[in-house]
Design a protein that fits this description.
alpha/beta; Zincin-like; 2 domains; four-stranded mixed beta sheet; three-stranded mixed beta sheet; elongated
Length: about 210
């Protein structure tokens, strides 16, 4: 008969091994109608879901309660939607590939980009009477800019790759958040006074979403 402490030690090893096994991701790649699809088993997923992102393509989360065959049939049923979105993604990818990545820029290029954004921020703040605390300019993968409750503004360095009117739109958007913290009708009315049609600018900006992925 094993000593109690030794027995508990063996159980701990088995428990750690089982937990490690659960962390191993099970994947499967198929080509469906000429499109590469990555299927990933997920313990968190409650249902089969599909996502499409620039440079990563089509990814399907498959819960353990569903089979790969069910997931494949789901993707076939959504193929029209997937193809339409892949066409949009191609445009995002082409835009992103045409722009030099910030991490590959020379130090002087990064400095020039930051100075350009800071200068434009200062000009627009003075023109419209805005005041902010401090500004941070860096590479961001999920957003063009933000404004904190303390009126600290953060801007994406890739703003320099946008058309000038869209760069101004983002800067003014964050400056306006120093006065109005939400996206209420009042916020958009004030944006329209500065840029003409704030919602149109927002729609145009979606064409450059791929720049956030580089």
């Amino acid at each position: 008969m094993l000593p109690l402490l030794y027995h508990e030690y063996i159980l701990d090893i088995k428990r750690c091994y089982n937990e490690r096994e659960q962390l191993i991701t099970e994947t499967k790649t198929l080509e469906i109608e000429g499109i590469r699809v990555l299927f990933v088993r997920s313990r968190r997923a409650k249902r089969i879901s599909v996502s499409i992102t620039p440079f990563h393509g089509v990814r399907v989360s498959v819960p353990y309660s569903s089979s790969y065959s069910q997931a494949e049939n789901f993707i076939i049923s959504k193929m029209g939607w997937i193809k339409r979105h892949l066409e949009k993604i191609k445009h995002y990818e082409s835009v992103a590939e045409s722009v030099k990545k910030p991490e590959s820029m020379a130090g002087t290029d990064i400095a020039v980009a930051k100075r350009k954004i800071e200068a434009r921020l200062g000009i627009l703040a003075e023109r419209y009477g805005f005041a902010y605390n401090r500004v941070t300019i860096r590479r961001q993968k999920t957003r063009w800019g933000s404004c904190s409750v303390k009126n600290n503004i953060s801007l994406n360095i890739n703003l320099v790759s946008l058309p000038e009117e869209l760069m101004d739109y983002i800067i003014l958007h964050e400056l306006l958040h120093t006065r109005i913290k939400d996206h209420s009708p009042r916020f958009w009315a004030e944006m329209d006074k500065m840029v003409g049609d704030g919602r149109l600018m927002r729609r145009r900006l979606k064409n450059y979403t791929g720049l956030l992925s580089i």
